[in-house]
Write a structure and sequence with these properties.
Oligomer: single chain
Strand order of the largest sheet: 2-1-3-4-5
Radius of gyration: 19 Å
Shape: globular
Strand content: 5-15%
Largest sheet: 5 strands, mixed
Order of helices and strands: HHHEHEHEHHHHHEE
Distance between the termini: 45 Å
Helix content: 40-55%
Number of helices: 10
């Protein structure tokens, strides 16, 4: 188990140990009642599927309190369609919907996404085989935006990718059942890092 002293030896521009100490000293006491409840109850209302990009922070963007969001982050905010076999993303989706009973799922893409930029520019990923394989989950999005050109290609791909991942999400049995029962809604967002704007791109999404 890592201690604060271990954290202090970790390289990086931000001292994680100082952050932990500040949390314990300033943030935690102000929300002590909330954390006491959360120690006993875990009932998030929304599953937020976003990109692993460090600039995209779901709780910050939505101003959510601890315990409100169940968060899954993947490179390119990709959601593989349902398939047999073990899958960490699928397991998280199923747990959020079937066990925790979330009533909404947000798939959130963002501007300047590295994964989408690589696809839009046809980057050589031969030295990153795992990344290349993972990004195959965006093949449909790439095909649908093949006619776009110039700077607009990336923006179009980001939007289309969110819609495609919503379609993939709808193939998961737990999601399909909850939607059929009228207890779950799906939403597609694109977050703009520079302006802080969030655009709903759910229209035209499959399902």
């Amino acid at each position: 188990m890592q201690t604060l002293q271990t954290l202090r030896t970790m390289p990086g521009p931000h001292d994680l140990a100082d952050g932990v100490a500040r949390f314990q000293r300033e943030v935690f006491p102000a929300k002590a009642d909330l954390f006491a409840r959360l120690a006993e109850v875990h009932r998030p209302t929304t599953l937020f599927i976003g990109c692993s990009d460090a600039r995209v922070v779901p709780e910050l963007i939505t101003q959510s309190e601890p315990g409100e969001l169940f968060v899954v982050r993947t490179a390119g905010n990709l959601v593989p369609a349902h398939a047999p076999g073990a899958d960490g993303v699928a397991a998280s989706i199923e747990y959020a919907v079937a066990v925790l009973g979330v009533t909404g799922i947000v798939v959130c893409g963002h501007s300047a996404c590295g994964a989408m930029t690589a696809l839009a520019e046809g980057a050589d990923l031969s030295a990153a085989a795992s990344v290349a394989g993972w990004l195959r989950h965006a093949d449909a999005s790439v095909a649908r935006t093949a006619g776009a050109a110039g700077p607009g290609r990336l923006s179009a791909l980001v939007r289309e990718n969110v819609r495609a991942q919503l379609a993939n999400l709808a193939t998961h049995p737990s999601v399909a059942r909850a939607r059929a029962a009228g207890t779950l809604t799906l939403h597609g967002w694109v977050y703009d890092i520079r302006s802080g704007g969030v655009t709903d791109v759910s229209a035209a999404a499959a399902g």
